[in-house]
Amino acid sequence: MTELTATAGTLPAHAEVFSFDEPTAVMDRAELFDFFELMHNGRWYDPPVAPSHLAKLFEASPHHSSAIYAKRNILLSTFIPSRMMDAATFSASCLDLLVFGDAYLERRMAINRRPLKLQHSLSMYTRVGTNPGQHWFVQNYAAPFEFAPDSVFHLREPDLRQEIYGRPQYLAAIQSLLLDDAATVFRRRYYANGSHAGFILYINDALHESTDIEAIKAALRDSRGKGNFRNFFIYSPNGKNDGVKLIPISEVASKDDFKAIKETSRNDILAAHRVPPQLLGLVPNNTGGFGKASEAAEVFVANELLPLQIMFRQINDWVGEEVVSFRPYVIGQPKP
């Protein structure tokens, strides 16, 4: 905060003028970290973004999780299970890739040393080792598990800063996610605490007894929390027109334009995921609506899900056979 003090003429007091500093932008003080490498402990590298934080963000906003589930569900509807990868394994891997930007598949071998199946490994705890082809499962730092060399396939979203871990595509909307969650929590506490019943009760009528004042105080205290929507009655004989006034303060002070905040954060989140709102069951605010859901779904699949299918087909090159394949996306029941 910058403060300026000025005196003029023979004024008996000085005037103070102050202004708040500008908001700190994301580009101001983060350039130094671009020169650093990923930290490691001699055995594995630490991810650039903590997976535990990304897992918590997944539950911060219904629009965020719903958009990810929509992508996963449409991809799963086109997936063709194979000998080495079933639908459950593909579903878990797809969810990990969309949430964390990384997906890991362990190749389990049969007794005859032939590939038996692909086992999903949680991205939350899987780490890339410092040696080529090395991966760790670190759910417990005291007893980490090291996979067999070259037995784990790592599918990742490309990152501009490093090539070890992936980075999810929605990171630009993190502030909107946190704003959406904070607005919801604030409004929930606002109603749970009964703050919306707050006001100033101004009385200038002469009441007959002091016990009347105490009774009014007790009734006001009881209006907070559960039962705060009960009616309030005051009897004042020979009272004036403005003898009793209700001056609302809590409603004005707590006015946060909740609806506008939710709509703005929702638009940012959906823009980061590039998911049409009609595919998420959102209700339009205008009379024209969002348009046909079928047309939006076709464009969405062509622009967003087909590239994801291409990414998952990289598993076939690593395994050496067709493990991942997809059927064409059909809206509604396929025709016989």
TrEMBL record:
<dbReference type="InterPro" id="IPR006944">
    <property type="entry name" value="Phage/GTA_portal"/>
</dbReference>
<protein>
    <submittedName>
        <fullName>Phage portal protein</fullName>
    </submittedName>
</protein>
<dbReference type="InterPro" id="IPR030935">
    <property type="entry name" value="PBSX_Proteobac"/>
</dbReference>
<comment type="similarity">
    <text>Belongs to the phage portal family. PBSX subfamily.</text>
</comment>
<dbReference type="Pfam" id="PF04860">
    <property type="entry name" value="Phage_portal"/>
</dbReference>
<dbReference type="InterPro" id="IPR006430">
    <property type="entry name" value="Phage_portal_PBSX"/>
</dbReference>
